[in-house]
């Protein structure tokens, strides 16, 4: 019993944000759209992209390209106005569940053969806040499986080395399981009075 309690204490509270990306299918020479589904725990919000102010940390999705798959710029949903108590301006935030859409394309390789399975890696960056505090900015890993239908190689790309792939700022970030809170009043202009 004490080991279970110790494990729960060490694990800390569940992360305020989770992310998943369902598998995508695309034909060689074709286009598809990946859906990155972000779930924000009740009581929390994250800054929209773009954020209402430059100093705020917007939710950001980054996926690395891996031949033959090309990755376009993410399309973020519109943020919803959110006013903190005592603030003079609205923030633009996401709450609940939001979907970021990422355009994909697959290079045409001529002949058709078995499917390739390409694993794209990336990350989700965000800063979760409630109406009293903002947690430290966090990064969560993201993995997207893209099935290129009828490509010629038939190689399962997960087994291929990642050499030559551009370095990502995601690789240097870590997932913060126990984020430390800091006062939102210290970072937000226009706040007056107690939180």
Please tell me about this protein's structure.
With 195 residues, the protein is mainly beta. The protein has a single domain (13-160), classed as Sandwich (Immunoglobulin-like). The protein is 7% helix and 38% strand. The chain has two helices and 14 strands. The protein has helices at residues 2-11, 169-172; strands at residues 17-20, 24-26, 31-40, 45-47, 60-63, 69-71, 80-82, 91-94, 97-106, 116-126, 128-129, 133-135, 138-148, 181-183. The strands form four sheets. Strands 1-3-9-6 form a four-stranded antiparallel sheet, with no helix packed on it. A four-stranded mixed sheet has the order 2-13-10-5, with no helix packed on it. The two termini are 39 Å apart.
User: Averaging pLDDT over every residue, what do you get?
Assistant: 77
Global morphology:
elongated
Instruction: Give the tally of β-strands.
Output: 14
Radius of gyration: 20 Å
- Uncertain residue segments: 152-167, 172-195
What is the terminal-to-terminal distance? Answer: 39 Å
Helix and strand run: HEEEEEEEEEEEEEHE
Sheet-strand content, in percent, reads 35-45%
CATH fold label: Immunoglobulin-like
């Amino acid at each position: 019993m004490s080991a279970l309690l110790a494990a729960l204490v060490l694990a800390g509270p569940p992360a305020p944000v989770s992310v998943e990306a369902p598998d995508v299918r695309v034909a060689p020479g074709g286009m598809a759209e990946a859906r990155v589904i972000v779930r924000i725990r009740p009581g929390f919000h994250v800054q929209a992209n773009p954020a209402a102010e430059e100093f705020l940390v917007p939710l950001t999705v980054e996926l690395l390209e891996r031949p033959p798959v090309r990755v376009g710029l993410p399309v973020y949903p519109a943020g919803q106005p959110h006013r903190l108590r005592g603030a003079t301006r609205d923030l633009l935030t996401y709450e609940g569940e939001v979907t970021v859409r990422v355009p994909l394309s697959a290079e045409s390789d001529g002949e058709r053969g078995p499917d390739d399975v390409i694993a794209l890696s990336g990350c989700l960056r965000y800063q979760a806040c409630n109406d009293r505090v903002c947690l430290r900015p966090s990064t969560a890993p993201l993995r997207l499986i893209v099935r290129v239908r009828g490509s010629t190689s038939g190689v399962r790309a997960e087994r291929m080395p990642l050499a030559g792939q551009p370095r990502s700022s995601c690789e240097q970030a870590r997932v913060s399981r126990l984020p430390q809170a800091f006062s939102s009043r210290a970072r937000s202009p226009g706040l007056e009075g107690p939180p």
